[in-house]
């Protein structure tokens, strides 16, 4: 899985080309590089884009605004190599596509809020696959939940970077889900572009005004409202700034 921890079923530590090598995303060690790299949004305002999107959505929904409930997700994963306790945390969307049935477990989450989000995920819900902690972070594809939360086996593996000596098998602290590749987004949607819309929406009340990617940016598992998901997905149809 991604943010979570990379899989080490075979005990392979340095084999970065092994398809099973998943990256584990640890909330404690994740850097705030994305915010640092996106302090200056691209030139131009996204207000008109938001208004056009809102008009189209209201037309489709008969003018009714969607309820602010979380039904989609954003999952962060590291596409570039980073060693943690001798294990490569790299797991890109290409690594996911290389897995059997393009499916993997999303293990290694060691933040309670992120874990609770994992436990709230429902079968069939979709999530953005987000490349994080890299030169240019952003949304690269879509995955879906194919197995709801169950105990994360890495918490009991003493050789795994995400081993937790305080967790007990009779009452596991940490959970994971299984995700499956759905498709690549039509284009890479960079963090800087999403942030430009977020800043504009904070001023004019657009759907990204409270997006957790900017209010709780260190979380590797983040919920999205239907409006947030739809708006970010609509960006794949636009030309890059």
Automatic annotation (TrEMBL):
<comment type="function">
    <text>Specifically binds 5-hydroxymethylcytosine (5hmC), suggesting that it acts as a specific reader of 5hmC.</text>
</comment>
<dbReference type="Pfam" id="PF01878">
    <property type="entry name" value="EVE"/>
</dbReference>
<feature type="compositionally biased region" description="Basic and acidic residues">
    <location>
        <begin position="10"/>
        <end position="39"/>
    </location>
</feature>
<keyword id="KW-0539">Nucleus</keyword>
<feature type="domain" description="EVE">
    <location>
        <begin position="72"/>
        <end position="234"/>
    </location>
</feature>
<dbReference type="InterPro" id="IPR002740">
    <property type="entry name" value="EVE_domain"/>
</dbReference>
<dbReference type="InterPro" id="IPR015947">
    <property type="entry name" value="PUA-like_sf"/>
</dbReference>
<keyword id="KW-0597">Phosphoprotein</keyword>
<dbReference type="InterPro" id="IPR047197">
    <property type="entry name" value="THYN1-like_EVE"/>
</dbReference>
<feature type="region of interest" description="Disordered">
    <location>
        <begin position="1"/>
        <end position="62"/>
    </location>
</feature>
<dbReference type="GO" id="GO:0005634">
    <property type="term" value="C:nucleus"/>
</dbReference>
<dbReference type="InterPro" id="IPR052181">
    <property type="entry name" value="5hmC_binding"/>
</dbReference>
<protein>
    <recommendedName>
        <fullName>Thymocyte nuclear protein 1</fullName>
    </recommendedName>
</protein>
């Amino acid at each position: 899985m991604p943010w979570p921890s990379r899989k080490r079923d075979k005990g392979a530590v340095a084999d970065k080309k092994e398809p099973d090598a998943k990256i584990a995303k640890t909330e404690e060690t994740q850097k705030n590089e994305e915010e640092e790299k996106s302090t200056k949004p691209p030139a131009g305002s996204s207000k008109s884009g938001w208004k056009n999107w809102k008009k189209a959505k209201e037309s489709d929904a008969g003018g009714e605004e969607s309820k602010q409930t979380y039904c989609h997700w954003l999952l962060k994963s590291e596409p570039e190599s980073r060693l943690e306790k001798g294990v490569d945390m790299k797991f890109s969307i290409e690594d996911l596509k290389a897995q059997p049935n393009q499916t993997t477990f999303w293990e290694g989450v060691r933040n309670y809020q992120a874990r609770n989000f994992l436990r709230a995920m429902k079968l069939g819900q979709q999530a953005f696959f987000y490349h994080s902690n890299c030169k240019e972070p952003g949304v690269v594809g879509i995955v879906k939940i194919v197995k709801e939360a169950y105990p994360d086996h890495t918490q009991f593996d003493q050789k795994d970077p995400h081993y937790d000596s305080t967790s007990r098998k009779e009452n596991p602290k940490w959970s994971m889900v299984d995700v499956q590749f759905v498709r690549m987004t039509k284009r890479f949607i960079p963090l800087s572009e999403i942030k430009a819309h977020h800043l504009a929406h904070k001023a004019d009340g657009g759907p990204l005004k409270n997006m957790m990617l900017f209010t709780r940016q260190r979380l590797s598992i983040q919920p999205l409202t239907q409006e947030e998901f739809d708006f970010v997905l609509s960006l794949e149809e636009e030309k890059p700034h």
